[in-house]
Amino acid sequence: MSDATEIRIRELPKDKLSADHFELATVAMPEAGPEHILCETLYLSLDPANRAWMQGATYRSAIEGGQVMAGYTLGRVLESNHPNFEPGDLVEGDGGWRSHFVLKGKHASPVAPRDPLSHILSAYGITSKTAYAGMLAIGKPKAGDTVVVSAAAGATGSVAAQIAKASGARVVGIAGGERKCAWLTDTLGLDAAIDYRGDNLFEAMKRTCPDGIDVYFDNVGGSTLEAALFRMNRLGRIVCCGVVSQYDTGNPSPGPRGVPGLLVTKSLHMQGFLVMDYPELMDKADDDLASWIKSGQLKVAEDIVEGLANAPQGLVGLLAGENIGKRMVRVGTEK
Amino acid sequence: MSDATEIRIRELPKDKLSADHFELATVAMPEAGPEHILCETLYLSLDPANRAWMQGATYRSAIEGGQVMAGYTLGRVLESNHPNFEPGDLVEGDGGWRSHFVLKGKHASPVAPRDPLSHILSAYGITSKTAYAGMLAIGKPKAGDTVVVSAAAGATGSVAAQIAKASGARVVGIAGGERKCAWLTDTLGLDAAIDYRGDNLFEAMKRTCPDGIDVYFDNVGGSTLEAALFRMNRLGRIVCCGVVSQYDTGNPSPGPRGVPGLLVTKSLHMQGFLVMDYPELMDKADDDLASWIKSGQLKVAEDIVEGLANAPQGLVGLLAGENIGKRMVRVGTEK
Question: Which among A127, A132, A204, A226 could disulfide-bond with A155, CB atoms 3.0 to 4.6 Å apart, if both were Cys?
Answer without folding.
Answer: A127
